């Protein structure tokens, strides 16, 4: 898997070529505020390396999804939604609503989140 993709928005954010509000950063991940928030807390958890979707990460990099989930929880703690509840969503494929084809998890919280979603 390519470490970056030249036409990928999130690769450009990771490289510092496109501005974003970074709320958390590690060696392998960054967390940024969503520019179109769907909840009071809406942060995107993004790996620094390029993978098109969650399935690709699972096949190629054992442990990265675990790290993303841990970091998402740390974001939820920092945002004050860990105790009341938050949702971690990975849209995989256009039919599921994925619009940027660089895997990313949405950390959503701060309001009631209905079930089923969508």
From TrEMBL:
InterPro entries: Histidine_triad_HIT, HIT-like, HIT-like_sf. Gene3D superfamilies: HIT-like. The active site is at 104 (tele-amp-histidine intermediate). It comes from the Bacteria. Residues 9-118 form the HIT domain. One of its GO terms (molecular function) is catalytic activity. A motif (Histidine triad motif) lies at residues 102-106. This is Histidine triad (HIT) family protein.
């Amino acid at each position: 898997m390519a470490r970056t993709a030249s036409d990928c928005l999130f690769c450009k954010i990771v490289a510092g070529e496109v501005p974003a509000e970074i709320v958390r950063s590690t060696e392998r991940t960054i967390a940024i505020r969503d520019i179109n928030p769907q909840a009071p807390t809406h942060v995107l958890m993004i790996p620094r390396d390029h993978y098109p979707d969650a399935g690709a990460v699972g096949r190629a990099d054992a442990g990265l999804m675990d790290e993303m989930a841990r970091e998402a929880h740390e974001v939820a703690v920092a945002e004050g939604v860990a105790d009341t509840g938050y949702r971690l969503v990975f849209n995989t494929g256009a039919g599921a609503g994925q619009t940027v084809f660089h895997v990313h998890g949405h950390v959503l919280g701060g309001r009631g989140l209905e079930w089923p979603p969508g």
